[in-house]
Write a structure and sequence with these properties.
about 450 residues, alpha+beta, 4 domains, four-stranded antiparallel β-sheet, elongated, binds zinc ion
Length: about 450
């Protein structure tokens, strides 16, 4: 500490402890010492042994506010401080570092990828793909950080702009739940953050809010060059890179796995596979009675519990994406996406027909009534398609739709085909009607999917 900067201000805050009289006494002595430095007084540095003018030493205040000069000169002090920082910022890895967490990329649903072959847009690399942003109006993000928007019947590459820190961002309309209804709001979409969100498996969504760009090149938004890290991990990599120029993926993965750079509430126990041998909690203090935990628990059960599959075989083959196998990650999504305290169903069937993966891109929350519209129980249906059954007594095919425990009879027909056609027509209309009824209450992606829904004979 150097008090020469603002002795009055610094003293001011500590006055009451010593009383006014002592304060002035000490203050006079301090000012005198300060003046004296103008007449050359010298002092020997305890560290380097040089005899130097006293102004080469920091002026300090002791326990009783008494001023004194430090024993080592400012140069030695600075060197010691540098060394301390260097030691502190040196990456130290445990001897037997286990690599629980690996670098992974998200699986992208082919339905989300925009065909740009006829769009007169030249890809930045052979692997550049534009992927539909589920919560934004007609927008696609590439794994190079570029955005295409569809407006007035045309697909356009957006220019984007930089914020005060030089970070690239786009202005897009996002579908948000606000004031009790869903609507579109213009918001900035940060390229680096969005690329991480859509293309990279983030091992810790709650804490990894910093993004390391390979080579500290902040204009590089290529997904393979971006690493979501927590504050401590980011600091370590940045310091190490500045000193050595090394920021290899191997090193970053090691830092990601080093317990010293994990958040305080993390321990090895957080990685224990407590759910069906696949799911883990990701943090120590987890409330297993929380709504988000119960939903996570049920989802894991539906996908990976063989006992459950005996009763509900339609869930066989369903999976939970890598990011959500960590409960703490699921929780972050859950809190951001649940509808204002309403306990809705976690649905994986509406946004992508035939989808078997639970993930932030493929799932949505819907009222139970809507969820039941999309359940299809193939097992136990026999040879007839969905919505059709054979009436043995009358030797006719009946079309029938059930909704919330109610059976709606749609008539009997001579052929399977005509019975199914009736069911298909009725059910598609029915889904559209429900979509209109709930328009303000459900997100736009859910509404769009419902309006376009098609029943097929092999559903
Ligand atoms: Zn010295």
């Amino acid at each position: 500490m150097n008090y020469i900067g603002s002795p009055v201000l610094d003293s001011f805050f500590s006055v009451p402890r010593f009383g006014i009289a002592i304060y002035y006494q000490v203050e006079r002595k301090y000012q005198k010492l300060k003046m004296n430095t103008e007449i050359t007084q010298t002092k020997i540095c305890k560290k380097c042994g040089r005899i130097l003018p006293v102004e080469e030493f920091s002026l300090e205040r002791g326990q009783f506010h008494n001023p004194y000069y430090r024993g080592e000169c400012k140069k030695c002090e600075y060197k010691r401080h540098r060394k301390y920082l260097e030691e502190k910022n040196k990456i130290r890895l445990s001897d037997h570092l286990e690599l629980h967490i690996q670098r992974r990329y998200k699986e992208i649903k082919p339905e989300r990828i925009l065909d740009i072959s006829n769009l007169n847009i030249i890809p930045l690399g052979t692997d550049e793909i534009f992927v539909k942003l589920m919560d934004y109006k007609d927008a696609w993000l590439s794994n190079y950080g570029r955005v295409i928007r569809y407006t007035y019947g045309k697909y356009n590459l957006l220019q984007g702009g930089c914020d005060n820190n030089g970070a690239l961002r786009y202005s897009l309309k996002k579908n948000v739940f606000f004031d009790g209804r869903w609507s579109y709001k213009r918001v900035p979409l940060y390229a680096a953050r969005a690329v991480v969100e859509e293309f990279i498996v983030n091992p810790d969504k709650e804490n990894n809010i910093y993004i390391w760009h390979s080579g500290y090149d902040k204009e590089d938004y290529y997904y393979k060059n971006l690493y979501p890290l927590n504050q401590e991990q980011y600091r370590m990599i940045k310091n190490h890179f500045r000193k050595t120029g090394d920021d290899s993926e191997e090193l970053i993965v090691k830092v990601m796995n080093e317990i010293k750079y994990k958040p305080d509430n993390w321990s090895k126990k957080a990685m224990n596979l407590v759910m069906c041998g696949i799911g883990y909690r990701g943090s120590e203090n987890v409330d297993c009675r929380a709504e988000s935990y119960i939903k996570w628990h049920d989802m894991m059960n539906r996908c990976y519990n063989e006992k459950f599959h005996e009763r509900q075989p339609q869930y066989k083959g369903c999976t939970v994406c890598e990011e959500w196998q960590n409960y703490s990650n699921f929780k972050v999504w859950y809190e951001q996406n649940k509808n204002n305290g309403m306990s809705w169903d976690l649905d994986k069937d509406i946004l992508f027909k035939g989808n078997k993966v639970y993930s932030s891109e493929t799932c949505c929350f819907v009222p139970h009534a809507i969820n039941t519209l999309f359940l299809s129980k193939k097992a136990g249906r026999g040879d007839c398609p969905i919505g059709v059954y054979y009436d043995k007594e009358r030797e006719k095919y009946r079309a029938n739709m059930s909704f919330m425990g109610r059976n709606i009879k749609l008539g009997s027909f001579d052929t399977i085909e005509s019975a199914f056609a009736r069911y298909k027509e009725y059910k598609e209309d029915f889904i559209q009607d429900i979509a209109e009824q709930y328009k303000d209450k459900i997100s736009d992606k859910v509404y769009e999917a419902m309006v376009k829904w098609e029943i097929e004979i092999d559903d």
